[in-house]
Amino acid sequence: MKKGVLRFLNEFEVYIGAALFAAMTILLTLQVITRYLFNYSFSWTEELCTVFFIWLSYLGACGGVLKGKHLRIDGFLNSLHGKAKKALLIFTDLVTMGFCLYMIPPLMKIIANFARRNSATILLRMPKSVIYAVLPFCFTLMTLRLIQDCWRVATSSDDDVKVTTSRSIFDADLDEEAAENGGGGK
After folding, report:
1. Which residues contact 163 (CB under 8 A, 6 or more apart)?
2. Helix H segments across the chain?
3. Is 127 helix (H, G, I), strand (E, B) or coil?
4. Cα–Cα distance between 68 and 43 in angstroms, integer?
5. Helix, strand or coil for residue 73?
6. Angle at CA 3, nearest 5°, toward 140 and 8?
7. What confidence tens digit (pLDDT) does each residue in 143-173 have?
8. Which of these, 31, 114, 141, 160, could form a disulfide with 119 (CB 3.0-4.6 Å)?
């Protein structure tokens, strides 16, 4: 039980993102069904889905940091080994952390401005300060995830530094084909 709670806390942005995606799918499906079958449209669903999409995008960016799936050109990185690879990985994490920390104060000013003006969305009257509060939260969370990644890289052995790289669908197809033909794949 303790392990499940720790896993949830360590990956909660992925779970919240999945819930938001499911909610968006349900709301947009409801919108399509009511519009085309009943000639009736809920105007608020699009606004709510837009808010969910903003939250989902930034939580997804945090999840990308967590899972090591951010876009990067890793040809040079993969040519490095040992301490050089570790140093470059930590350096890129530190640069990204610097950007995240740099962005938090101006975002807080924007949110305070929304709150001071009582700015809200048109249909649902949701406070914009609440909607945009996800931005400094996610930049802070990304910073924490980057600290975790720096720790992971720094404490791994020089030869065991793992870089999570995305693979194209064509690589996955080649692996399946090789497995079917008795080959080992990549």
Report:
1. 68, 74, 77, 78, 85, 89
2. 2-10, 12-37, 44-67, 75-79, 82-116, 128-132, 134-155, 169-180
3. strand
4. 38
5. coil
6. 35
7. 999 998 889 888 887 666 665 544 444 555 5
8. 114
**pLDDT tens digit sequence for 80-115:** 788 888 888 889 899 999 999 999 999 999 999 999
Q: What is the spatial distance between Cα 76 and Cα 153, in angstroms, rounded to a whole number?
A: 17
Cβ 150 vs Cβ 128: under 8 Å:
no
pLDDT for position 186: 46
For residue 24, which amino acid is it? M
CB 42 within 8 A of CB 31: yes
